[in-house]
Amino acid sequence: MSITILGIESSCDDTSAAVIRDGLLLSNVIASQKVHEEYGGVVPELASRAHQQNIVPVVDTAIRRAGIDKHDLTAIAFTRGPGLLGSLLVGTSFAKGLAIGLGIPMVDVNHLHGHVLSHFIREQADDEIPEFPYLCLLISGGNSQLILVKSPKDMEVLGQTIDDAAGEAFDKCAKVMGLPYPGGPHIDRLAAEGDPTRFKFSRPHIPGLNYSFSGLKTSFLYTLRDNIKLDPDFVEKNRADLAASLQHTIIAILLDKLDKAVKATGVKTIAIGGGVSANSGVRAAIADYCQKHGLKAFIPKRAFTTDNAAMVAIAGYFKYLDNDLCSLDATPYARVTV
């Protein structure tokens, strides 16, 4: 009998719903919120209000595009955390109401697990998926982690940021350059036009496999501050080179710890996930690294790098297969690690 999972994602500012049947993606709908751009970041209260407006039409659209009826659903998977509590409450409450109305079980999903397992989303039956174990570099606005993935339910965090995440470094450095929010895509675009060796920024010396990006942000800020004193138009004249040098430094930091983790674990497969895995420089660097070292690289489609319900649905699918269901009294959580 087929297993059909509805996934619901509402951890931040994207409302998303997806349907997966027996591991195959039937639909994936995302409603983004533009309202936050003028504030330079996500405003939690505005995000939760937008989720309330979007969740019904988004879920309805996902079910219709999948070509199914809501009564065909086997279970509902939803993001329980981490994320913004107000946003998570909207998705959690909707999942509970729909599950009760349809008389089907719920599966709670760790948002980070969704990113890690996004490589198992299959749009075609013959799509290639990773073999266990593999090493996942999870890089987003809130997380930078190296994870040894032994199975869908057995993940070991080998290293993680001790302060800021890579995505946060991209966005905050973009902000001081006067770029719109979110800044990461603008840095990516500018970097393609600039010289990555023009400016040198601080690289942290953190023992083990942990990351740190706070020193890089400070170094970047001081570079701008000191040069603007000499030339008020410094940023405007050097925007592309600054972006390229920043991106080059972040990638170098990420690859340094990734290389150490590969040597420590002996894994033969590398995967990346999270919003920063959409960055062109990161994708090219990972592909190049794996090619040079004879490793298999799994680089997700950009549609599956940002927050989306397809990854929630596939993570929920694996949990459903293990009969790892969620009770109706489950409450969302703001913080957690893999």
Describe the overall structure.
With 338 residues, the protein is an alpha/beta fold. The chain has 2 domains: 4-126 and 304-321, Nucleotidyltransferase, domain 5 (2-Layer Sandwich); 134-302, 2-Layer Sandwich (Nucleotidyltransferase, domain 5). Helix content is 42%, strand content 19%. It is built from 9 helices and 10 strands. Strands 3-2-1-4-5 form a 5-stranded mixed sheet, with helices on both faces. Strands 8-7-6-9-10 form a 5-stranded mixed sheet. Strand 7 (144-151) and strand 8 (154-160) form a beta hairpin. It is globular, with a radius of gyration of 20 Å. The model has no long low-confidence stretch (mean pLDDT 94).
Notable characteristics:
338 residues; alpha/beta; Nucleotidyltransferase, domain 5; 2 domains; five-stranded mixed β-sheet; 9 helices; 10 strands; 19% strand
- Order of strands across the biggest sheet? 3-2-1-4-5
Q: Strand count, sense and closure of the main sheet?
A: 5 strands, mixed
Oligomer: single chain
H/E series: EEEHEHEHEEEHHHHEHEH
Number of helices: 9
| Name given to the CATH architecture of the largest domain | 2-Layer Sandwich
Kindly, what is the distance between the CA atoms of the first and last residues, rounded to a whole number of angstroms? Answer: 31 Å
Please tell me the overall pLDDT.
94
Number of strands: 10
Helix fraction by DSSP (H/I, runs of at least 4) = 40-55%
> For the record, what is the CATH homologous superfamily label of the largest domain?
ATPase, nucleotide binding domain
CATH hierarchy class name of the largest domain? Alpha Beta
CATH fold name of the largest domain, please?
Nucleotidyltransferase, domain 5
Q: Structurally, how many domains make up the residues? A: 2
Which segments are poorly predicted (pLDDT under 50) over 5 or more consecutive residues?
none
β content, as a range? 15-25%
